[in-house]
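ZP: hey, is the zinc ion complex queued? I don't see it on the tracker
AM: it wasn't, my bad. submitting now with these inputs:
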Amino acid sequence: MDDINKFILQKNKKLAHYLEPEILTLTLGELDSNCYLVSCPDTQETIIIDPGDDGSFISEKILELKLKPLCMVFTHGHFDHVLGSLELRLNFDLPIFLHKNDNFLVKDAQKSAIYWLKKHEVAPVPSEVSFISKGQILEFGKCQLEVIETPGHTPGSISLVSTSTTTIIFTGDTLFKNSVGRTDFKYSKPLELEKSLQKLFSYPKETLCYPGHGESTTIEAESQI
Ligand SMILES: [Zn+2]
Ligand SMILES: [Zn+2]
């Protein structure tokens, strides 16, 4: 994965003319997790956010739409957001980015899935991953996603922000339509989640939010709850 620097730019680099990405939502797995194929409309370069399950289905979509995948990003390490990653790695040789504070969850993802889904066979998650943190920008074609840290649901939860004509945030399991992330895991921190929500609510009210589960929403709708 020697091409990581192709994606990760210096902190605070802002290009003048980012385009709004195209977004395809694939709802996958037994927990109906949202996987997002986020693409540059000009170059078809694509970032795969949360390949939660069924890597072969995601791969088919990529081929069918003639997308050019560059990498996978996990909003956090829960198994329902990562289980399709091995197949995508095998098919497209893609690097994986996540926050280092959630690597313990990714390492446990296969075991957790076997336990929670009561399955016998679950694909492992590749162990070779790269860490990203706040302020880093993933560039794909003429689009970009900036990493912001939104811990609470898990210690390494991140959200990804696209700033163009519309601001778009991929909120993982931090913020949902009419709901917020669970904080009843032993490693969750309700106060941190509260701070992360305030961070999200500081974006313009018309900001579109694409969560880890369920329908998309806006900052305006969620900040009033
Ligand atoms: Zn989660
Ligand atoms: Zn989830």
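AM: back. Helices lie at 55-64, 85-92, 103-107, 109-117, 190-201, 219-223.
ZP: great, adding it to the tracker
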